[in-house]
Amino acid sequence: MTVVHLRHPEPGLLVIAPERAPLVTDAAPGLDVLVLEVTGGHLSWSLFDDESVPAAVLDDVEAAQDWVWAVYGEEVASAVADNHPRTLTAAPARRESAAALRRLAYAHWAIRWWPASTVDGIPALDPRLLAEEIEALTEQCEMMFDGDIDERSSELDAYASLGTEETPDGGGASIGRSLGRAEDYALAAGGTDSPDGLIVARGSGGWDWRRCPPGILDAGQHAVSWQVQRAAGVSTVLVSVVASPDCRGVVPEHLRPYAWVRSAGAEFTTPLHRRGDAWTGSVRIPGTPESSPEITIFVPGVGPADPPEDESAARDRIRRFARTRLTEHTGDQRLTAETAAAETDEDF
User: Fold this and answer.
1) Across the beta sheet with 2-7, what order do the strands follow?
2) Which residue among 101, 180, 239, 326 has its CA within the 20 to 30 Å range from the CA of 79?
3) What's the pLDDT score for residue 197?
4) Contact 265, 227 (CB under 8 A)
């Protein structure tokens, strides 16, 4: 059983939540928050918590009454009907449905945030297997939704078919599945000295996952590499980002990544173009930088205008979580796509 608190954070909203549970109304929900839109509101869970009882933010209490009893139990359902703040114990009337809901939310999370990385040795999840399991779980949890399952299925079909388009010859941004191994990219930041000039600085790092859709860039902590080259009195910053291991097909123009480079108080932006297993670009900067340039990778229009504070620790924890899911037996059953990825992990 789980203790939950009913409260009104603002007029028109009712929150049902365990202590310290993440909410969709939080100022900046973390990368580790599972979210599901349901009839009458939204449910949320923490990725790292096996608790099947979610937090709920309801904007239509009457509509939500059709399912609250199944997820929280009769006592909470009665309190929701009264619409009066209090603290209660949740005991799902349908435990299997509550567990299926969390699994469905996790599958949706995996579509967006699974940290597929050749650099870090984390294989991608098969989009078709994910879509099939989401469709099955959605049907199992049918009472939670507004009867738009057919629409949801169409969206999943579109997701599952992403990247299946054949790669035309000569397409600079057309990409095939990366077949490299993790060790092939481990020294991506090192690069090689160029015969065209002196390498005066180099480095590597990660990128903000919120700023790019999934399936385009490698989610590794050292997927971004750069070097400053000096030749004929001109400094050039060369940027390279490893492509996602499931990056295939043709990436539409509006989803192609850019690099924002800040050096010596000046700012420059350059599009990145696909070259083999990496997205690359370069910019010229004035003088010789006295400190390392700041590199930001982004897709225009993707992500918040004001990104949260540095989330590198959260990304590291998610990578560890993903590795554990593929290599160890946990209390939570794997998704079908995770099982398939674990079986092929040794050859990744």
Assistant:
1) 33-38, 41-46, 55-58, 14-18, 2-7, 86-90
2) 101
3) 77
4) no
Task: Give me the sign of the Cα torsion angle 242, 247, 253, 256.
Answer: negative
Q: What gap in Å lies between CA 321 and CA 122, rounded to an integer?
A: 11
Same domain for 181 and 204: yes
Instruction: Say whether both 135 and 180 belong to one domain.
Output: no
Closest CA to 71 of 82, 85, 58, 83: 58
Say if residue 71's pLDDT is above 70.
yes
**Could you tell me the pLDDT band of residue 346, with boundaries at 50, 70 and 90?**
low
Q: What is the pTM of this model?
A: 0.87
Structural domain span for residue 233: 174-298
How many angstroms separate the CA atoms of 293 and 261, rounded?
Answer: 7
Helix ranges (DSSP H) in the chain: 61-72, 74-82, 95-113, 127-140, 149-160, 312-327, 336-344
Q: Is 58 helix (H, G, I), strand (E, B) or coil?
A: strand
Phi, psi of 181 (to 5 degrees): -100, 165
Q: Determine contact, residues 179/204, Cβ cutoff 8 Å.
A: no
Residue 276 in domain: yes
pLDDT band at residue 29 using 50, 70 and 90 as cut-offs: confident
Q: Which amino acid is at 9?
A: P
Return the amino acid letter for 103.
Answer: R
Per the listing, tokens 């910019």 go with 283
The answer to whether position 167 is within a domain reads no
Report whether 71 contacts 83 (CB < 8 A).
Answer: no
pLDDT of 194-210, one tens digit each? 556 799 999 999 999 99
> Does 90 score more than 90 pLDDT?
yes
**Same-domain check for residues 156 and 65:** yes
* 102 located within any domain: yes
| 258 Cβ contact list (under 8 Å, min separation 6) | 269, 270, 271, 272, 281, 297, 298, 299, 300
Residues 63 and 153 in one domain: yes
